[in-house]
Specification:
By secondary structure, the chain is an alpha/beta fold. It folds into 2 domains: 206 residues, Rossmann fold, CATH 3.40.50; 151 residues, P-loop containing nucleotide triphosphate hydrolases (Rossmann fold, 3-Layer(aba) Sandwich). It has 16 helices and 14 strands. Strand 10, helix 12 and strand 11 form a beta-alpha-beta unit. The C terminus is likely disordered.
């Protein structure tokens, strides 16, 4: 199947081909006709399935057919995302796919000055990609006009709920016209997601591309047992021995990300950390240098890694196993995209054995273990407890949620 057979016009197909894409992915094959038809959609799609193009391509097509004229601060399509990085990535995709259609698009998120965003919205925008908190700031300041909105997309809805954005989303919905098309994309279908879909969507078509809790067959997964105090030493050894040039490393905490990036840099491996406490300028620079190959290692927390979209990322490393087993799937989904080969490495110490058991139970697979000579575990080391996270939406107060929403 080709993109033109899905009902996309020549300018869009031309832009897609110039980006190197010739055959639509399964989620694109099913979602694009639905969106073009005007129906609501509930799509289960994990990272790396091509879901951004699945909604952005038909949105661009629909807006070009309608020949919309942007009025003062008017918006015709709104895409809500959980993080700044993902918002920036989606808006960049809008520019790339719409190269020959030239839609007006802008991205709005917190952590940067609101004034340039106000100016961009004042000129009018066909498409706005936003995080919930900063969008509410614009709504409250009346610097955005959503009265003519035609299409709403909730991207990575499960993560938005995990981050406590459900109340912000509900506040946004109150400012939207009742007659609109709604598209909800989520990697998982929890009870909270189902409840949100029931209230948001009108007789939606359900598309579920893959079994939940599965990992891509193109990703080789390996466990390296190692003592907790020697993890950084082992990671340095692996990077140097195998000449890894582009490595995305996950840590459990922001402090751990900072410390690891500093230690790797001291080892002569160019590294930077990315997490919520970093300024937007620092996060943008780190992502740009990593994607451009200048930065050898990017150390990230789970939330900050949302929006890191690199087609040919060769490998990811779990320096710390995640507390939530499902996050393991999201992490390793950053590699092995679009049928390409990828590698997922996990450095596992005695403290994390139960976390590993939980992950293997979730993915219904026993992962391959490999011991590196000189880094064997000390059998006398006793496990220490790992502090487990509680989902943000179950522990945040209203005041905290309001502050955290300005992402």
């Amino acid at each position: 199947m080709q993109f033109y057979s899905l009902g996309l016009s020549a300018p869009l197909v031309r832009a897609i081909h110039e980006l190197g894409y010739t055959i639509p992915t399964p989620i694109q094959q099913q979602a694009i006709p639905v969106v073009l038809s005007g129906g609501d959609l509930l799509a289960g799609a994990q990272t790396g399935t091509g879901k951004t193009a699945a909604f952005m391509l038909p949105i661009l097509e629909k807006l070009s057919r309608m020949r919309v004229v942007s009025g003062k601060a008017s918006v015709h399509a709104l895409i809500l995302t959980p993080t700044r990085e993902l918002a920036a990535q989606v808006e960049q995709s809008t520019r790339e796919y719409g190269k020959y259609l030239k839609p007006r698009s802008t991205v709005i998120f917190g952590g940067v000055s609101i004034n340039p965003q106000i100016e961009a919205l004042r000129c009018g925008a066909d498409i706005v990609v936003a995080t919930p908190g900063r969008l509410l700031d614009h709504i409250q300041q009346r610097t955005i006009n959503l009265s003519v909105l035609k299409i709403l997309v909730l991207d990575e809805a499960d993560k938005m709920l995990d981050m406590g954005f459900i109340y912000d989303i509900k506040r946004v919905l109150k400012h939207l016209p009742s007659q609109r098309q709604n598209l909800l994309f989520s990697a998982t279908f929890s009870d909270e997601i189902k409840a949100l879909a029931d209230n948001l969507l009108d007789s939606p078509l359900l598309i579920e591309m893959a079994r939940h809790n599965t990992t891509a067959e193109t990703v080789t997964q390996t466990i390296y047992p190692v003592d907790r105090e020697r993890k950084r030493e082992l990671l340095t050894y692996l990077i140097r021995t195998y000449n890894w040039s582009q490595v995305l490393v996950f840590t459990r905490t922001k402090h751990g990300a900072n410390r690891l990036a500093e230690q790797l840099t001291q080892d002569g491996i160019i590294s930077l950390a990315i997490h919520g406490n970093k300024s937007q300028a620092a996060r943008t620079r780190a992502l740009s240098e990593f994607k451009g190959g200048v930065l050898q290692v990017l150390v990230a927390t789970d939330i900050a890694a949302r929006g890191i979209d690199i087609d040919q990322l060769p490998r990811v490393v779990n320096f710390d196993l995640p507390n939530i087993p499902e996050d393991y799937i999201h992490r390793i989904g950053r590699t092995g995209r679009a049928g390409a080969a990828g590698e997922a490495i996990s450095l596992v110490c005695v403290d994390e054995r139960q976390l590993l058991v939980d992950i293997q139970r979730l993915i219904k697979s026993v992962l391959h273990h490999e011991v590196i000579a000189g880094f064997e575990e000390d059998p006398n080391v006793k496990p220490e407890p790992i502090k487990r996270h509680i989902k943000a939406n179950t522990r945040r107060s209203t005041a905290t949620r309001s502050s955290a929403g300005r992402r």
